[in-house]
Every structure is written in C-alpha cells, then in structure tokens.
C-alpha cells in the first residue's frame, strides 16, 4: 500500500523528529515518569498538535492515512508521547465534529497550537469496557449543568487544560449519556495523583473528581443522550491511531533486534547467522508488515466512511503483534534486553497497554463478531 508523495514526506519529517528529538529523551522520561514538554512543543512546531483540527481553525486536518503514519512514527520514538498526541486529537475531533461555531473558535485554534492540551474523560472506576454503566451525572440547573462523579485512567489528566467529558443527564437512564466541555480550571474539579504504571510511564494517567462542577449549558457538545454514539464514532479513529502506534512499537523493536543480532557474537559469529534467530526476525518482520497493512486499510476505509470493523481488526492484530515482536526482541537481546537501560525493555513494557486501552482485545473481537454476524 503505497503512500502519496505528501504522506511519504510527512513520514520522513516525523521520523527524523522522532529519532533526533523524541528517542533521546525516552529512557529518562520513562525512569522519571515525566512528560517531555519540549517534545510536545516540537510537535506543535510541526503542526502535529492540530492533526485533527480543520484548516479553518489553524489545524493540519490530516486525512486518516496521514494521521496513522504520524502515529506510527511518533510511537517508534516513545509511546507515551504518541498516546498524549492521539488523546489530544480525540478531544479536538470531538470539538470539531460536535461543537458549535463558538466552541470551535474558542478552543480549536489554541489547541492546534499545542495548548491547552486536551483529554478524553470517558472511563470510570466501575465502567470501563461498558461505558453505559457510568455514574457521572450532569444535571441541568437553569442555564448551567452541575457535574458530579469520578473518571479513571485519563491520559493527559494532569497536563490537560480542557476535558471532553461524558456524563449522564440522568444517572438512572443509560440512554442519557451526553458529551460536554469542561475547562481544566473549573471549580470543583480535582485531578488525582499520577498512576504508577507498568509502562507508558512518562504519560500522566490520572483520575478526575467532579464535585458540584458548574459549567454553562453552551458547553454541551452533543444533544442530550447522543454522547455515547458520538464517543464510539470518535473512538473508531482512536483505535486506528492505537493500531498505528502498535506498528511503531513493533517496528522499533524489530530494528533494535536486527541491529543487535548482527553485532552480538556467539559461537564464532554474529547471532544473526543462527537459524533460530533468523526465523524469529522473519516472523517479527512479517507480523509488523501485516499489522501496518491492516492499519492503513482501516485508515483508508475511515476516509471513505465508517470503518468500525476494520478499525477493530487493525487494533486487535497490531496490538498483539506489538506484544509478540517486543517479547521476541527482548529474547534476542538476552540478559541485555531485561535491564532498564535497554530500549527493548521499555518497548516491551509499553506494548502491553495497546491491548488494553481504547477497547481491550476482547472488546475488539466482540465488535468484529458483531459486524460480521449481526
């Protein structure tokens, strides 16, 4: 699946940025659990923080294939940065697609320039894979909505200046989920401590608590009760982004393993001459390419319309490919792959989250089966 000249040029620019600006910060950012803000500013300079913002509001307005290319390249540098970017892009997508003209003009130009950072507040402590069970409520009170509840696993939770929030207008009505915009400085909004995670450690993943948070009624993005369908629509693009990030992780791990196998001498020569290692690399390369093709096919389908089936297939396959390839990369490195100064050790830890967030592998299989059979 060939890229256009423009898409190939974007790939080359972002790949160079990832190698020169992102990769050198990755080990330290992971160790210190600190997001590299200078890298974020660099992404903004490349117009990538406006990836899903229409040109009319100062954005890049990338087509889905270009967006997938960007996500792959950024993730090859550091998944935590790619995740922050894709979640920011989810937020800008929601505002661009469902917001009023006033809301677009208020938020999108600044978000396209990189700040405020956006977050996507859907999951809750007791409502992850089934968001219809959420308990956060936004009750109408005159010309305002009053929000009470808690969100969990929020990427950019600490850094965000605006949250796209999903809440029920009636806690007892599962069909009342609605989408809102909540500024980061709203009274009554508390950001929890950063989670101490297996991987993705440079990303600020937090809880959010809403205690009598009052926002103007015009901060409602969707009609009441239309928020969940809007979330699923936007998450189709998000799943393609995660698939692309998984490809980036797998490709980087494959590159590291290939280089190491040609440098490491055992039994009188480089281990790349050993058939067992050669077969590992062959399977790693095949799964990585297959994942990329599934991802770009889903992106092309998304550009033409709905791609729920293809997006779930891509995320399911690519995330499992990332886990397989990073695991094999650690194995090829042996003891050197198990220590924290190794790139493949970090890639292996980071890869696991791709099978979990924005819909677990099990949810992707459920979506695929539903699209095939129902």
UniProtKB/TrEMBL annotation:
Its cofactor is FAD. InterPro entries: Acyl-CoA_DH_CS (IPR006089), Acyl-CoA_Oxase/DH_mid-dom (IPR006091), Acyl-CoA_Oxase/DH_mid-dom_sf (IPR046373), AcylCo_DH-like_C (IPR036250), AcylCo_DH/oxidase_C (IPR009075), AcylCoA_DH/ox_N (IPR013786), AcylCoA_DH/ox_N_sf (IPR037069), AcylCoA_DH/oxidase_NM_dom_sf (IPR009100). Residues 225-373 form the Acyl-CoA dehydrogenase/oxidase C-terminal domain. GO terms for molecular function: acyl-CoA dehydrogenase activity; flavin adenine dinucleotide binding. It comes from the Archaea. Keywords: FAD, Flavoprotein, Oxidoreductase. Residues 4-114 form the Acyl-CoA dehydrogenase/oxidase N-terminal domain. Residues 119-213 form the Acyl-CoA oxidase/dehydrogenase middle domain. Belongs to the acyl-CoA dehydrogenase family. This is Acyl-CoA dehydrogenase. It comes from Natrinema versiforme JCM 10478.
